[in-house]
Specification:
Blueprint lengths: L1 H4 L19 H15 L12 H5 L2
Pfam family, one: NRDD
InterPro entries: NrdD
Amino acid sequence: MILENGLPPVESWVHCSKSGPAGSLRVAVTHLAKWLGIIQGEFSGGQGYDYITTFLAP
C-alpha cells in the first residue's frame, strides 16, 4: 500500500503533506522507514514488515 500510494497511504489525511509513490529503491525504503516512525506511537509492541524483500525485488 505504501509502495503503490506513497505517504500517507490513505486519501483521507488532508491535514498533512503527501508524497507520491517511490520512483527508486532508496525512496521506497525511506518511505517504509518513515511509515514505521509515524505509526510507532499508535501501536504497542514491535512493528515491522514481513517478507519485505519479496515486495522490493525487481
